[in-house]
Structures are given as structure tokens and as C-alpha cells.
Amino acid sequence: MNALQVKSLSVAYEEKVVLSNISLTIPKGLITGIIGPNGAGKSTLIKAVLNQLPNKTGSVAILERPLNPKDHIVGYVPQRNAVDWDFPTNALDVVLMGRYGHIGVMRRPSLRDKQIALNCLRNVGMEAFAEQSIGQLSGGQQQRVFLARALAQEAEVYFMDEPFVGVDAATERTIISILKELKSQGKSVFVVHHDLQTAADYFDWIVLLNKTTIASGPTEVTFTPDNLQEAYGGKLFFMDQAKSGKNDL
Ligand SMILES: Nc1ncnc2c1ncn2[C@@H]1O[C@H](COP(=O)(O)OP(=O)(O)OP(=O)(O)O)[C@@H](O)[C@H]1O
């Protein structure tokens, strides 16, 4: 079964076309990295797949079906800077929002929902911060809370937009081990990622993007100097520089 199938997807913001003729077929049960330079359209691709953008053509299927908001099969972790962290709420309530797909926005969460939410906070090492205002958490702690919210959705396919940005090494390890745990449960995870040094370790499958698809396939096939050169153009360096860490593109 395929986790994601995209056919001839194009997206424009007003007149400006930012994604052109994207076609992808990605099997279920993998951790996929979506990689490309700034402005390549990585976030736009996720938003288009999640039906959040009006101006698109082409088709998208998740687990072989068009996205149906009532299915709750998709979990989303937005970019951290896309979230209003001054919103007056605590960490537990943010995680409970992940349950709304199951309980409905008008109903009160049950004890079981609260237990699931607390469990998810525990999984990301944030149980002790359940009652803390989200605005008072550090960037990495906020990211962990958002990951917990996605876990609370109990989705089948996860889309995460740069979950490793601004987090320390311990948080990064926590996040990657959670992604691997999701994979071991047969779930599929899509991650927008910038760090080429870790990409080959983290991902089973890589989509290289620059306004259109440069490559999509198993990491060992797609993550090659030629494909990276094509995706990053003149901004690219050499693979051995990627390995030495001089890769912050
Ligand atoms: N709401 C918007 N209105 C108009 N243009 C937009 C909007 N959002 C993104 N764009 C443009 O679309 C293009 C793709 O942006 P997008 O954020 O998808 O790229 P990205 O690959 O995720 O970039 P980054 O790595 O910098 O986060 C960029 O040129 C950006 O300026």
C-alpha cells in the first residue's frame, strides 16, 4: 500500500507558481525526508497534500484514498514559527487538541483522552510541564509538546515541518526515536528537513524538491551528489562537506 500518491500537483500563491507538476508514489511504513533549498516549496507541498491551499491542481491520495477530514488518519506538526506561542494555554491542553478529531470540538475530553495526552507528554519527556503555559517553554520544549499533540491524534500518516529546527541534540534524539517507534508500528512519517548531514541516517526514502521533483526514491538511490547538485544548483558544495557538517543551506 502507498502512504502517499501525488499526481501532477501544481500550486500557485496568487499568480506565482511555486510547485509545478509534482508526481510522487511513496510506500507505507517509511520515514521520508522532504529535502531541498529554501523556497523549494517543501512546506507548500505538505500544505497542499493536507488540502490547506485553495490554488492547486492535480490529485493527492493518502493511504490510497482522497483526504477526508473525518478519517483522522493524518497528523501534522507545523513549523514552530507558524504557531502563536502567546496563546494562553498550557501544554496538556495543547496535546488534548490532538484528541479533538476523536472527541469533537464541542465535547469535553474524557478521562481516557487526558490519560492518552499525558502519556504522549511522557513519551516526549514533557510530563512535568503539563500545567505550564506554552509561552513559558523553551523552543525545544515547545517542539516536543507539538510532537506530543501529533502523537495524541493516533494518526496513520504524519507530516512534520522541520521538527528538528532549534532543538538541542537530546531533543533531536528523542524526536528521531519517536519517529522510528511510529515506523515500527507500521505508520508513515514525512519530515521536511534541512540537515544533509543526518538525512541519510534518518530517512528510508528521500524526496528532493526544487519547485518540481528532482528525485524520489529509497535514500541510497536518491541521495547522490548529482541529485543534490541538481536540487541545490550553484549553492551546493560537495558530499564530503556535507559529511563534515558544513551544510547549513
Ligand atoms: N502564503 C504565501 N503567499 C505567497 N507566497 C508564498 C506563501 N507561502 C510561501 N510562499 C512562497 O512559495 C515559495 C515556496 O515556499 P515554501 O515555504 O513552501 O518553501 P520551503 O521549501 O518550505 O522553504 P524553507 O526551506 O525556506 O522553509 C517561496 O518562494 C515562498 O516565498
Automatic annotation (TrEMBL):
Keyword Metal-binding among UniProt keywords: no
InterPro entries: AAA+_ATPase, ABC_transporter-like_ATP-bd, ABC_transporter-like_CS, Metal_Ion_Import_ABC, P-loop_NTPase
Keywords: ATP-binding, Nucleotide-binding, Transport
Keyword Transport: yes
A GO term, aspect molecular function: ATP binding
Gene3D superfamilies for this protein: P-loop containing nucleotide triphosphate hydrolases
Record-linked SMART domains: AAA
Domain ABC transporter, first and last residues per copy: 4-236
Signal peptide as annotated in the record: none
Superkingdom as given in the UniProt entry: Bacteria
Family: Belongs to the ABC transporter superfamily.
PANTHER family, per database record: IRON TRANSPORT SYSTEM ATP-BINDING PROTEIN HI_0361-RELATED, METAL TRANSPORT SYSTEM ATP-BINDING PROTEIN TM_0124-RELATED
UniProt name for this protein: Metal ABC transporter ATP-binding protein
Lineage: Bacteria, Bacillati, Bacillota, Bacilli, Bacillales
